[in-house]
């Protein structure tokens, strides 16, 4: 079964699943806390988790591009690239949910700045993973 087919099916399933669950998840993800400007609210926490997922994917994708597959500790050449794609997708999706659920701008505790950051870093991680995956296919 081709990898492109698997990626398309997985992406469609994620979009469909999150599309149906987005309104319910948006209410749960972002609950502002009037504690203050420096308090860790749930929106800020979720955007931090999403940004860290995207950052991990970007690091793994960079390593997959820079080093051979055996240096990543994975037997096949696609492992690092697929991990970067998955982590980047997860970071971008969670960041997108945080942004979609935010009812206020920066500084309100909804985590909108971190959500946008997570979206950007997640997309970069997916791009690095995609580049590493095409390089592995070309050489292998």
Summarize the structure.
The protein is 74% helix and 0% strand. With 140 residues, the protein is an all-alpha fold.
What does this 3D model show about the protein?
With 140 residues, this protein is mainly alpha-helical. The protein has one domain (42-139). The protein is built from four helices and no strands. The protein has helices spanning 3-29, 42-66, 79-101, 112-139. This is Integral membrane protein.
Summarize the SSE layout with pairings.
Blueprint: H1 3-29, H2 42-66, H3 79-101, H4 112-139
Helix pairs in contact: 1-3, 2-3, 2-4, 3-4
Descriptive key words:
140 residues, mainly alpha
Distance between the termini: 17 Å
Mean pLDDT: 76
Number of E-type strands: 0
Q: Strand share of the residues?
A: under 5%
Oligomerization status of the protein chains: single chain
The ordered H/E elements are HHHH
Give the overall silhouette.
elongated
Tell me the Rg in angstroms: 17 Å
Total domain units: 1
Instruction: Give helix % range.
Output: over 70%
Structural class: mainly alpha
Major sheet description:
none
Number of helices: 4
Keywords: Membrane, Signal, Transmembrane, Transmembrane helix
Pfam family, one: DUF6223
InterPro entries: DUF6223
Transmembrane segments: 45-67, 79-102, 108-133
């Amino acid at each position: 079964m081709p990898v492109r087919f698997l990626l398309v099916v997985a992406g469609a399933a994620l979009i469909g699943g999150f599309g149906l669950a987005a309104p319910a998840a948006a209410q749960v993800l972002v609950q502002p806390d009037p504690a203050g400007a420096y308090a860790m609210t749930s929106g800020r926490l979720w955007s931090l988790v999403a940004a860290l997922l995207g950052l991990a994917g970007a690091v793994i994708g960079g390593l997959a591009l820079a080093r051979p597959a055996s240096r990543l500790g994975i037997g096949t050449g696609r492992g690092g690239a697929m991990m970067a794609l998955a982590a980047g997708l997860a970071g971008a999706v969670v960041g997108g949910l945080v942004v979609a659920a935010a009812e206020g701008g920066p500084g309100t505790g909804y985590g909108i700045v971190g959500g946008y950051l997570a979206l950007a870093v997640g997309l970069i991680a997916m791009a690095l993973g995609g580049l590493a995956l095409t390089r592995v296919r070309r050489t292998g």
